[in-house]
Amino acid sequence: MSGVILLAGRVAALDDSGRTSAIAKQPVSGPQRLGPEGLATDEQADRRVHGGPEKAIHHYPAEHYPLWQDDLGPLPLLDRPGAFGENIAAAGFTERDVAVGDIFSLGTALLQVSQGRQPCWKLNHRFGLADMARRVQATGRTGWYYRVLRPGVVEPGDPLERIDRSEPEWTLHRLWTALYVERMNLDELRAIAELDFLAEGWRRHAARRVASGKVEDWSKRLEGSS
Q1: CATH: 3.40.50.2000, 1.10.3720.10, 2.40.33.20, 1.10.260.40. Which one for 5-223?
Q2: Region 79-93: what's the mean pLDDT?
Q3: Rounded CA gap, 199 and 203, in Å?
Q4: Which secondary structure element, helix H or strand E, spans residue 110, and what is its range?
Q5: How does pLDDT run across 65-85, given as a tens digit for each residue?
Q6: Neighbours of 52 (CB within 10 A)
């Protein structure tokens, strides 16, 4: 398996939206300190919804890039890793074979899959497409987040190796199906609400949907404000 590309970004203006973001990640070189809230060189503009221990590192599969090129045509943004604001770009794993609770080694650090990504409106600005966040959600090509079980030092080219599994049947694809395709499958939602190693926010999300009997409105997250 080839080694990873590591990416980090600084908070900057998000085109002409009047907002700021650190979604424009760039490859980094040399050893990087990876702590409980991510790479020491990485930033997040809105800490209410980005970053934190349960979203310390975002991984986006390299396998998705050719699929997006087929869908969207030749966009320069898709010619290199970092288009989706990821911290780890790597091939070998996708949402169909990565499960909540999977533990990976990278350098001297240990990472654990905590949740999938819920795409937000900043992707629309990043790609110049008003519905890009909805496309990402609809395809299930979301990537995922890790929590850091053991801080350490990581470096571009380090192999990402899965070393343990707790809930192999609970792939990220299965979670995505329950939340965005079979949206009122109550048995699945109840199971998600009790799922060990899944980020607490996602478990509460599933429990609220069961309790309310309604699918929440995604428009603010996916479209933002004009």
Answers
A1: 2.40.33.20
A2: 96
A3: 7
A4: strand 109-116
A5: 999 999 999 999 999 999 999
A6: 17
